[in-house]
Design a protein that fits this description.
This protein is mainly beta. Helix content is 0%, strand content 42%. It comes from Pyxidicoccus parkwayensis.
Length: 651
């Protein structure tokens, strides 16, 4: 006879106390005993499955007594229509809730009798020894308690930095106050940047508190250092090889100004490598907008105004360039290879000569033009004279023997005397000569000035090697006294420059009782004036004149016909002045208007001599000896000397 499950009625009867046993149902039934021990299942279920048709299954929760860790629950299983009598019974216990992990499970096979009651038994075992409602994470059906001996250690507990995994998750990594650590296998203090950082309360061994190490097998590689080798490796782990001091891959310029890229030259050095080819550049040293001084090969311009095309044949004067217009001044103004060509009347242009200017016995030591027809003469016996064309006016208020003069653009002249005094006279106030004492009493032999607004800075030199500065402010109620700039061991005769920073002073120093030519230049920094190396060790006597044409071009002249050119930082001797029938003569005064235009007067015949860059020639013969030469431009020249002689060239 076939049995049927009658509604799958489940009746749980506690067997923990003495109960009156009920009569079995009319149809057959199973009495299932569910036992559990050493834990309390928070979710206990019984599953009944028809073994002959596994699609037939039913589950039901089994109530457990709260706080009871070992118990037996009884469930009655009755027959149900359509089911076979052959069943599989499965008891399942979950930790804390039905969603928790299965911590115990057992299955048995049983048969529902046709009549009466048959018994079936299921026995579940798990461990919650610390009674914290979390089952030990051991055995075939582990729970979640990682330490079943401590009730304060289980999932959900507060994690602490106490050396214990309180909540059974990631050790102490989730405790407040933890720090990230990275594996550090090479012990360089930086962890592997590709590893996942782990949080710990206390730093474990072989770890580092900072990451970023791009090669954790070599302690020479880590952040926080500079590249020490140029080898294509990234020692500082910044993602760039051979940077820092080597700067490999960076744009650069070679010593010749060629654009390139920095590459390793050796393991200890890098170098800028360029494919550009350098070219010759020409510099505009005289400021006329045309370049003519050849510079070294370069890719980039070596200075403002430089050009790869030469357009100036004389970089010593702004009056000569390939775009210039030819005028009568003994210069090749248009750089066509010929001087004064096509200028009408230039061949017959002569010097005007005046004698007995000031007095028949006037000895003029200095001349200072400041305009085309205006200027000053200064000389012995207190003679100072203003020149305005053919009008000569003596200044009677400047007693002294005057050896040097320089005129500002407004016509004010500054004077230096043989007794170390300085004076000044305005062109519009010839009866008022203001005289002051200098820092010494030796003869002031040379003078030059620089104007800025109403302030003039006058520099002078004397026979005791003093370099003197007098700052004069036009219109001021009082003037500062002249001051000593420095003193060199020499008898100084002349001074010139374009600015205070380009000054040259010349004279002679005593070497074993012999006067030897010497020159000093203003310092680029500090207060010490460097001495120039003139390259004429065998020369003797004085340098008596100096002319600075550009910051890199200057001329000095002196005894024995000596003419020296400074180009850049190198001095070179030019052909000495030799006069027919006399031989080599001393040069007393010098006026350089360009590389190809140099005028000089000598101790021999009275000629004004001209040097065109290659050879000397005579351009005029004054009636008396000249002591001074000056000019405001190449075609506005003045000379002065003995017997009140004044010569001027204005073609």
């Amino acid at each position: 006879m076939r049995l049927f499950l009658l509604g799958m009625v489940l009746v749980a009867v506690s067997m923990s106390g003495c109960k009156k046993e009920e009569s079995p149902p009319a149809a057959g039934a199973l009495r299932v005993s569910l036992s559990y021990a050493t834990f309390q299942p928070s979710c206990l279920t019984l599953k009944v499955e028809d073994r002959e048709d596994p699609s037939r299954t039913e589950s039901t929760p089994v109530t457990v007594a709260a706080g009871v860790r070992s118990d037996t629950r009884t469930v009655a299983v009755l027959g149900r229509e359509g089911w076979s009598r052959n069943l599989r019974l499965t008891a399942t216990a979950h930790e804390r809730s039905c969603a928790g992990p299965v911590v115990a499970e057992q299955s048995v096979e049983a048969q529902v009798p046709e009549v009466g009651v048959a018994d079936a038994r299921l026995d579940l075992r798990a461990e919650d020894l610390d009674n914290d409602e979390y089952v030990s994470a051991t055995g075939p059906r582990p729970g979640t308690d990682c330490d079943d001996s401590r009730a304060d250690v289980h999932p959900g507990a507060t994690e602490l930095c106490d050396g214990i995994d309180n909540n059974c998750v990631n050790g102490e990594a989730d405790a407040p106050g933890t720090q990230e650590f990275w594996p550090d296998l090479d012990g360089d203090g930086y962890g592997d940047r590709d590893a996942v950082a782990v949080r710990f309360c206390v730093q474990p061994g072989n770890t580092a508190s900072r990451g970023g190490d791009c090669n954790d097998s070599n302690a020479a590689f880590h952040p926080g250092q500079e590249e020490s080798r140029c080898d294509g490796l990234d020692e500082d782990c910044d993602g760039v090889t051979d940077d820092d001091a080597f700067a490999v891959g960076a744009s650069c310029a070679t010593d010749l100004g060629c654009a390139g890229v920095t590459k390793c030259q050796s393991v200890s050095a890098s170098v800028c490598v360029s494919t550009e080819q350098p070219v010759t550049w020409y510099l505009d040293e005289d400021g006329d907008g045309s370049a003519g001084t050849e510079s070294a090969l370069r890719c980039a311009s070596p200075a403002p105004g430089a050009s790869t095309t030469r357009s100036d044949c004389d970089e010593g004067t702004r009056f000569v360039s390939s775009t210039g217009t030819e005028v009568c001044d003994r210069l090749d103004n248009d750089c066509d290879g010929t001087r004064d060509n096509g200028v009408a009347g230039c061949d017959t242009a002569t010097w005007s000569v005046d004698t007995d200017v000031g007095a028949a016995d006037a000895e003029w030591n200095a001349v200072a033009p400041y305009g085309d027809t205006t200027g000053w003469l200064a000389g012995e016996a207190g003679r100072v004279l203003h020149v305005d064309g053919s009008t000569f006016t003596l200044v009677t208020s400047c007693p002294g023997n005057w050896r040097a003069a320089w005129a500002a653009s407004n016509g004010r002249v500054f004077l230096g005397s043989a007794a170390g005094k300085l004076a000044t006279v305005a062109a519009g106030a010839l009866d008022s000569c203001a005289e002051v004492s200098g820092p010494g009493s030796s003869s002031i032999n040379g003078m030059v000035g620089f104007e800025q607004d109403t302030t003039v800075r006058v520099f002078a030199v004397d026979s005791q090697g003093r370099i003197i500065r007098w700052v004069y402010v036009e219109g001021a109620t009082s003037q500062a006294a002249p001051e000593l700039v420095t003193q060199v061991p020499a008898n100084l005769r002349a001074i010139h420059g374009l600015t205070p920073e380009t000054l040259l002073v010349v004279g002679a120093e005593d070497v074993g009782g012999t006067s030897v030519p010497a020159a000093w230049r203003s310092p680029s920094s500090g207060s010490t004036w460097p001495k120039e190396s003139l390259g004429v060790a065998s020369a003797t006597g004085f340098l008596r004149a100096v002319r600075v044409l550009t910051p890199t071009l200057a001329y000095v002249a002196g005894d024995g016909g000596l003419l020296l050119e400074r180009s850049g930082t190198t001095w070179a001797a030019k052909p000495a002045l030799t006069v027919a029938g006399t031989g080599v003569v001393d040069l007393r005064a010098l006026l350089a208007v360009g590389r190809t235009g140099i005028y000089a007067v000598a101790s021999g015949p009275n000629d004004i001599h001209f040097f065109d860059g290659a050879a000397w020639s005579s351009v005029t013969v004054p009636p008396h000896r000249l002591n001074a030469l000056e000019g405001t431009r190449p075609d506005r020249l003045w000379g002065a000397g003995s017997s009140g002689t004044l010569v001027r060239w204005r073609p």
